[in-house]
Amino acid sequence: MNPKIKGYILGAIAAATYGTNPLFALPLYSEGMTADSVLFFRYLIALPAIAAMIIARGRSLAIRLADIGPIALMGVMMALSSLMLFESYRYMDAGIASTLLFVYPLMVAVIMAIFFKEKLSFFTLLCIVMALGGIALLFKGGDQPLSLTGTILVMLSSLSYSGYIVGVNRPGLKSIPTVTLIFYVLLTGTIVFGAKIAIFGGMHFAMPTHWYMWGCVAALAVLPTVISFLCTTAAIQYIGPTPTAILGALEPVTAVIIGIFVFGEILTARDWFGLVLILISVSLVVAGGRITAPLIRFRKLFPRLIHRRK
Predict the structure, then answer these.
(1) What secondary structure letter does DSSP report for 148?
(2) Which of 42, 127, 236, 268 has the smallest set of CB atoms within 10 Å of its CB?
(3) Does residue 137 have a pLDDT over 80?
(4) What CA–CA distance (Å, rounded) separates 63 from 259?
(5) Is 142 within 8 Å of 266 (Cβ atoms)?
(6) Sequence ranges of the domains in the chain
(7) Is the four-CA dihedral 94, 99, 102, 107 of positive or negative sign?
């Protein structure tokens, strides 16, 4: 097979597998599992797989003592982003929330401009305006107005993840191999959710009680985490970071498709237009190449749960 074709296929698989989160998470929610429980088991099961990847690549799990604090901070930011995203799904459809989350590349560009004095081009500003226009269309696009609470939560989730991307690409953490850093980010998340469960007990914990529930947890750990990461890495090697990042637009597209055909979510023509505006604006910024490297180094590792809009 042509290497470029293989790269595009792998990039598409990476994005699509990440977009399957609602497919496996919703049954766990319907059986009474909480967001903390789902995250705890997903991270816990993914850890051995990531460790095996490190060993297979001949990498080391060793890190410097001075890196423990910054890594832990990044892990906490990821965990907080996960929780805020989970809460947003209580107020809006998964497809819309996943698309709103996809504005994080624009937030990275703004953060780099404000705090690190990188130039924010007119083209990027135009794309930000396009994305805001898409959000405005979504806000009153469906049968019910888009929840302000849900919108704020998913925007905070996107902002937290954007801060994580910027943080892990600063001097110091940037020198740590990607797969090693992801291992410790997952480990931190496991500890955070485990501690929360231990403190609050039954309010935040529910064990999988049936074989299919364990299957859903395992699928969340393997498909959108391990397989997505492996395919992303391989796609970068074949076609480069920019096309791979642009293919990331298939993540919210997959979530939208699953929401419609599996969970019966309904989108109006105005919703579709808003979603397309957001996807185009973000993809154009990524295609510019200036923020592609930090975006592609660390893919999202938190699941997308879905609740029907109230």
Answers:
(1) H
(2) 268
(3) yes
(4) 41
(5) yes
(6) 3-297
(7) negative
Q: What is the DSSP letter of 143?
A: S
Average pLDDT over the chain reads 82
Query: In whole angstroms, what is the distance from residue 105 CA to residue 109 CA?
Result: 6
**Could you please report the per-residue DSSP string of 67-130?**
GHHHHHHHHHHHHHHHHHHHHHTTTS-HHHHHHHHTTHHHHHHHHHHHHH-----HHHHHHHHH
pLDDT of residue 298: 53
**Tokens, residue 10:** 């792998």
Give the pLDDT confidence of 62-89 residue by residue, as tens digits: 899 999 999 999 999 988 888 888 778 7
* The pLDDT of residue 304: 45
In eight-state DSSP terms, residue 147 is P
Nearest to 180 by CA among 281, 71, 266: 71
273, 292, 294: which is closest to 282 by C-alpha? 292
For residue 305, the SS3 value is coil
What string of DSSP letters covers 150-218? HHHHHHHHHHHHHHHHHHHTSTTGGGS-HHHHHHHHHHHHHHHHHHHHHHHGGGS-----SHHHHHHHH
pLDDT in tens, 217-241: 999 999 988 888 778 867 877 887 6
Which position has the token pair 């959108």? 224
Q: Give residue 308's pLDDT band: very low, low, confident or very high (50, 70, 90).
A: very low
The whole model's pTM is what? 0.81
Residue 186 near residue 136, CB atoms below 8 Å: no
CB neighbour list of residue 268: distance below 8 Å, 6 or more residues apart = 141, 142, 143
